[in-house]
Amino acid sequence: MSYVSESFWHDAVNKATCDLFTFGYKHVVKPHFVFNHTPDVAHDQMIEFCRVTKNIPPLMWLLREMLDYTDPILETETMGVRFANPFGLSAGLDKNCDMPVLLDHAGFGFETVGSTTSRPCAGNPKPWFHRLPEYDSMMVHVGLANDGSETVIPRAEEAWRRAKAMQVSVSIARTNDAQCGDLDEGIEDYRISMERAAGRTAMIEVNVSCPNTHAGEPFTQTPEALDRLFTALDTVERPQPTLVKMPLNKPWPEFRELLQVLAEHNVQGVSIANLQKDRTGLEIPREWEGGLSGGPTYRASNAMVANTYREFGDRFAIAGVGGVFTPEQAYAKIRSGASLVMFISSLMYRGPQQITVLKRGLARLLRRDGFDSVAEAVGVDVD
Length: 383
Ligand SMILES: Cc1cc2nc3c(=O)[nH]c(=O)nc-3n(C[C@H](O)[C@H](O)[C@H](O)COP(=O)(O)O)c2cc1C
Known about the structure:
Elements: H1 8-34, H2 39-53, H3 57-67, E1 76-78, E2 81-83, E3 87-89, H4 100-106, E4 110-116, E5 129-132, E6 137-140, H5 149-162, E7 167-172, H6 183-197, E8 203-207, H7 218-221, H8 223-233, E9 242-245, H9 252-262, E10 269-272, E11 291-292, H10 298-312, E12 317-321, H11 327-335, E13 340-343, H12 345-350, H13 354-368, H14 374-377
Parallel strand pairs: 3-4, 3-13, 4-7, 7-8, 8-9, 9-10, 10-12, 12-13
Antiparallel strand pairs: 1-2, 5-6, 6-11
Helix pairs in contact: 1-13, 3-4, 6-8, 8-9, 9-10, 11-13
The chain binds flavin mononucleotide.
Cofactor: FMN
Pfam family, one: DHO_dh
InterPro entries: Aldolase_TIM (IPR013785), DHO_dehydrogenase (IPR050074), Dihydroorotate_DH_2 (IPR005719), Dihydroorotate_DH_cat (IPR005720)
């Protein structure tokens, strides 16, 4: 295997095209093709763009040649899964599995498809999104709209098998519709999707922390409820590792209790964390519903990553997510204990070359500080 980092010309072209994409997205694409539409329309158009272009192989080849930065220092292994790099798309942007071909060619280490639910789900009434560019944030109120796990998981399986280098994970959540019942009904809903996902993706993420549903978040309200859910999920045999998507707005003692429960179950990783519910200090119209992504999640999520690493060490692999816009921010999450780093908002605000910006920058920072791999830097700031 030849790495881009080891070829003078390929490396120079990769850097130049990355800079060109950064300029083009900021000055042309974003103002004239994305931000001139409402975020709901721009989101639909982006998904449609992925559906069409994934069937144009020369375009995908070009994307790979221009954007995919490969470097041995970025390769990593965690939970028994090998990654070309630690960066992944977080759950929620690609609920129905339309993006893997593009993301694979652009050089993502992994993608989280979903969240998907046992029944197809229409989600909440629109608008689903509001932009808050002053905070590098989106207000999200989708409510888990998706085609249902019976349809989405086979798509994810096929995408995983076909991917050149990218790992594919699937996020499963509880259906958000009028049929939602008691805790047992919710547990059965997750169990159905877990059975469908067993053995069909590189990883499974269990989303217990969606802030935008009528049933709320019953499985993070008490350790007992979480224990009941994972006792049921333990009965589903599966070869791939399981991560749990954690809530952001919990005081550390409560968060720790939830982790103590998960430590007793078939759970290998935690994704920290979901959307920010706290609007303190932010000027946001009251009538806007939903959780915040991007900037407002960054500090709180880093603190939870560090606390989790400090107290649980190697028991859980941590996928750090929330407000990663620069290589320095990704590096800070790794140094706080994250083995993997996920993002969505920076893709929307900065453009598709963001994956290349983060990879190039992280490789530079690791070398600057004398590390030979990502794994060596995990948790070094935590005492
Ligand atoms: C458009 C959008 C949809 C999302 N939907 C989901 C979802 O379905 N499941 C989930 O676990 N998280 C969902 N999230 C939360 C993200 O996975 C992530 O935790 C959060 O956005 C923080 O990352 P960021 O700052 O890089 O955007 C969503 C976020 C966004 C922006």
